[in-house]
Amino acid sequence: MIKVIGVRFRKAGKIYYFDPAGYEIESGEDVIVETIRGVEFGYVVKGIMEITEDEVVQPLKKVIRIATDKDLDQEEENSLKEAEAFGTCSEKISKHNLDMKLIDCEYTFDKNKLLFYFTADGRVDFRELVKDLAAVFKTRIELRQIGVRDETKMLGSIGICGRPLCCYTHLSEFHPVSIKMAKEQNLSLNPTKISGVCGRLMCCLKYEEETYIELNRKLPRYGDTVITPGGKEAEVKHVNILRQLIKVIIRDGDNVDIVEFHLDELKIKKKRGNKNQKLPKAEYNELKKLEKLEKQEKEISREK
Question: What is the distance between the alpha carbons of residues 142 and 184, in angstroms, rounded to a whole number?
């Protein structure tokens, strides 16, 4: 076991582990650490704790110091310069007539590097832009293309639930989200209802996936044949996943009854149904487009 602290460099950003180097550091404090990008100002979100060596990416770097008042002033000054750099870069992008959207920029704490984050539909030749920016700021320049999920995470917004976006407030990393998750939860497969502000599938589809998989494992599907408490055969027409209630159609000659039972009251005789919803062609094509965009997002993430 080794002692570490958890540090973030952006709000709801990924948590990185560092060696506290003998300092008594608590959650909520600010620290100066060395990273692969250079010296950085970070926010401690996890105080000193012990974890196994397998959970740490080696080599584990040490905390340089707990942030001083001078360091806090430097961080504030960097923030002001970042705002100026953003405006300058936007002007240069327009000057070079580049098809890219500038999202954010940041200095490393020691000002040895200035990073600009942007989105674009495809590849962008920004070599001349980098030369111009380097001549203006006299430091190393890095332009990094990000996906629309990362863009939304940086800018923030309000979700359809009426609350600030999960990615902006607490999700440190994006987890794979698929159409299958919406199907498991018996949600409408209308793309406009299961897509977030970013235009991709909502991250919250992942939250209850395991619970729904377990609940669905026991339930019959639409179209299955079941045996009712009275011994009659019935066809499943609707399933309430959370309450484990099944609405069935019982046919007796010309009489047709619709009755609701709890799962424990029924015996599944024949499974032949399908929980997949049939969609109009336009909605089906839109879902396939979403899946294609998801794959493109993963490609961009791998290249970063």
Answer: 42
Neighbours of 108 (CB within 10 A): 20
**Would you tell me the crossing angle of helices 69-95 and 127-137 to the nearest 10 degrees?**
140
- List, in order, residues 6 or more apart from 106 with CB less than 8 Å away: 78, 82, 114, 115
Torsion of CA 117, 113, 303, 209, to 10 degrees: -60
So what's the pLDDT on residue 273? 52
Specify whether the CB–CB gap between 33 and 18 falls below 8 A: yes
The pLDDT assigned to 287 comes to 62
The β-bridge partners of 6 are: 17, 46
Q: Which two tokens stand for residue 131?
A: 């030369």
Q: How many CB atoms lie within 10 A of CB 188?
A: 12
What CA–CA distances, in Å, run from 180 to 4, 183, 185, 208, 286?
Answer: 38, 5, 9, 13, 15
Task: Note the Cα 101 to chain centre separation in Å.
Answer: 21
pLDDT computed for residue 280 by the predictor: 56
Pairing of strands 16-18, 101-107: unpaired
Q: What is the pLDDT of residue 271?
A: 66
Q: Report whether pLDDT(281) > 50.
A: yes
Q: Which amino acid is at 48?
A: I
Q: Which residues contact 61 (CB under 8 A, 6 or more apart)?
A: 18, 19, 33, 34, 35
Quote the Cα angle for 77-165-85, to 5°. Answer: 25
C-alpha separations of 194 from 176, 215, 222, 295 in Å: 14, 21, 22, 17
The upper half-sphere exposure of residue 13, i.e. CA atoms within 13 Å in the direction of its Cβ, equals: 13
pLDDT one-digit tens code per residue, 9-22: 988 889 999 999 99
Q: What is the pTM of this model?
A: 0.75
Q: Please report which residue ranges of 138-263 form alpha helices under DSSP H.
A: 148-155, 166-169, 179-184, 191-194, 209-218
